[in-house]
Design goal:
This protein is mostly beta strands. 4% of the residues lie in helices and 37% in strands. It has one helix at residues 2-21; strands spanning 62-67, 77-79, 82-89, 114-122, 128-137, 155-156, 160-164, 170-174, 179-183, 207-209, 212-217, 224-229, 235-240, 251-255, 258-263, 269-273, 279-283, 295-297, 300-304, 314-318, 323-324, 337-341, 352-354, 357-361, 366-370, 377-382, 395-397, 400-404, 409-414, 420-425, 435-437, 440-444, 448-452. The chain has a five-stranded mixed β-sheet with strand order 14-15-16-17-21, with no helix packed on it. A four-stranded antiparallel β-sheet has the order 1-33-32-31, with no helix packed on it.
Amino acid sequence: MKICRVSLAVAIAVLGLSAAVHPAADPRPGVDWPSFRGIRGAGIAEGFPTATTWDVPAGTGVRWKVAVEGLGHSSPVIWGNRLCITTAISGQKDAGLKTGLYGNITSVEDDTPHTWKLLCYDKTNGKALLDKTILTGVPKVKRHTKSTHANSTIATDGTRLVVMLGSEGLYAFDMSGKQLWMQDFGVLDSGYFLAPRAQWAFASSPVIHDGVVVIQADVQKNSFLAAFDLATGKKLWRTPRQDVPTWSTPTIHQVGGQTQILVNGWKHTGAYDFKTGKEIWKLNGGGDIPVPVPIVGQGLVFITNAHGPAGAPVFAVRETATGDISLPAGQTTNAHVAWSVPRDGAYMVSPVLYQDLLYVCRNNGTFSVFNPKTGERVHQARLGTGTSAFTASIIAADGKLYFTTEEGDVHVLKAGTFEVLATNPIGGIGMATPAVSEGVLYFRTSKELIAIK
């Protein structure tokens, strides 16, 4: 009997070790939202009905809401019933966050010690599950008046949480909040390349695929794309990038038997081999402060950006592209670029490809809808009065699209017909991209986390 108990204990230990080291299961569409804009950055969650109307200030349609200390634009990530975000708490009572359509490039002057936290909640009721202090100190770079020191969204595979804090480092935790490893990259200065003193803070989010963490760090000096072992933090490869600061997040995509990393850029939009970091294709030109995430579908990679004198393009690149596919001046297509348009691109808002239509929204609320195969613009309209700014990215679910203004109004559109079904308040500044899980919409304002059903 004693031997049996010992054997049983050993078996349990072996099983536990096996579960700890084996890769997690794939995220479940409609349930898990594992990184910025969900699975593969697509911004889509299907399979469950989602809300059309609500009113957070009035308490209508609210499942739960909780106060969140500090500032952060990191979007909620969800695995199972666990929802997690990060926040940065300033030593100033009013850290300052300025919304609106304006072009001020100056940084916020705040050299007080900050506390960075990892916060997790039960997605069903908002109960706090984890309040983990990651570090405390004075930020190594400044931030923009629309930015925070916790911009980057967490990535998770259900066994680990990967947190990118820019100049404050890259961290991995288990789901209970135990720190597993940390990578220090030194100062990652994300600021305006034409005025380097204007620091704006890091914003690119990590992504996880097949037990590997991928980081895009386009900064003032020594930009790079890098891959790290999720279990140990060991660097697998690091590829230099010749680009100015960008704020986009990579997208993972399979082409045939090859896994690719897709990145937005100004001097270097492109694809890299996931295993080696070797460049596959390259495209230059467009907006000089790229932010939107690359999205894929129908054999195409859709890239958009919009800032500066170089235009506001939308590119549709064939997923099989190789080499330098840059377009000469005045040319809109070639063997690898299926189509492009020069002036309908987005500055801040990531697009969405939903029900065979591509939706692209400018930061003033003007949105265009394209036939993704041909590039024909089938619709264009403006949300609101044109005086509201849009920073949060579009998400889609249940035949609807959700567009969030910085002032905290969410425009709900019917997919395909483009009818505005409702405009709903969330009761606070809405600059973080929402998440969706099992039909519940999760919004993060500057002060609260809110579940809408």
